[in-house]
Write a structure and sequence with these properties.
mainly alpha; 2 domains; single chain; Hypothetical protein af1432; 17 helices
Length: 287
């Protein structure tokens, strides 16, 4: 283990301690089998900012509905409670990490990569026949979240890892291991655990660089691994140096999700490209 323990990065920071209270209140209500749309809508409506965020996302290219969705209750009726909960989680997390030094990481570039990964994961999940695709978007969105924790809690060590990666040409996460003794995916897992988020989400974040290591949820992890590779490929095509690492997508991951890379990679690339500008514009308002 390196100079720091992962727990050192998570504890003692109010910004990292918990998600906004409205998320937990909503989850409690949604988990009640007797809940209805009116109860959920009432809780969301008590937070005007959250209401605006959700309606902007629902009315964006993220869904592409033909008519405007004007109320949270309407959104619930067509999107579903679980799907909307995932959007609450996604927009809440983006507001948690502000004030990170720009010389350590460009947050706009970071979130663009994360949103790109989320969109790719969502598209892949839909192609496999998954119904609740928003949870895949969230997994993609949060796959690198541990990197922001490192920036906030250990900026000197993070800077050393970044410099080592740039000078050696080694993959960024491997440089993190050399400096910290662990990488951002492990930190992300610890953060999501502290937020009491599902193991399904945590495993796909923890093993997105090592999909073979996923045991409980290999399919979800394979989707996020492939989506990460697609996001890096898109960044490279757009000339975004920071997030354009040469990542080789594990061929076995395509087998795990039972899709042909040759057939479906171009489809996912086109899907993400078509949605990227508008969806990114909507989500980045909260970062």
């Amino acid at each position: 283990m390196g100079v720091l323990e992962i727990s050192d990065l998570i504890k003692g920071d109010e910004r990292l301690a918990t998600l906004p209270e409205v998320f937990y209140r909503l989850r409690e209500v949604v988990d009640d089998p007797d809940c209805d749309f009116a109860q959920i809508g009432e809780i969301i409506s008590m937070d005007p900012g959250l209401t605006v965020r959700l309606l902007r996302v629902v009315n964006s290219a993220f869904y592409g509905f033909s008519s405007e969705v004007e109320t949270v209750t309407h959104a619930l009726s067509i999107v579903g409670t679980e799907q909307l909960m995932q959007l609450v989680l996604a927009t809440s997390v983006l507001s948690q990490f502000k004030g990170i030094r720009k010389d350590l990481i460009n947050q706009e570039v970071f979130w663009k990569h994360s949103i790109s990964c989320g969109l790719a994961a969502r598209a892949l999940a839909a192609l496999t026949g998954e119904y609740q695709v928003e949870r895949f978007f969230v997994a993609g969105l949060l796959h690198d979240i541990g990197r922001l924790v490192m920036c906030l809690r250990a900026p000197k060590e993070f800077s050393r890892a970044l410099e080592f990666s740039q000078s050696s040409g080694d993959r960024w996460y491997r440089s993190e291991i050399k400096i910290f003794g662990f990488d951002h995916s492990e930190v992300g897992d610890a953060l999501l655990k502290s937020w009491n988020l599902p193991e399904r989400l945590r495993e796909s974040v923890k093993f997105h660089h090592r999909p073979h290591a996923a045991t409980a949820f290999p399919r979800e992890t394979a989707v996020v691994h492939i989506a990460d590779g697609i996001a890096h490929l898109l960044a490279k095509n757009m000339g975004v140096r920071l997030y354009a690492e040469n990542i080789k997508i594990d061929a076995d991951s395509w087998k795990v999700i039972e899709l042909s890379e040759k057939l479906y990679l171009p489809l996912v690339l086109d899907k993400v490209k078509n949605q990227f500008d508008e969806v990114t514009r909507v989500f980045l308002q909260y970062a």
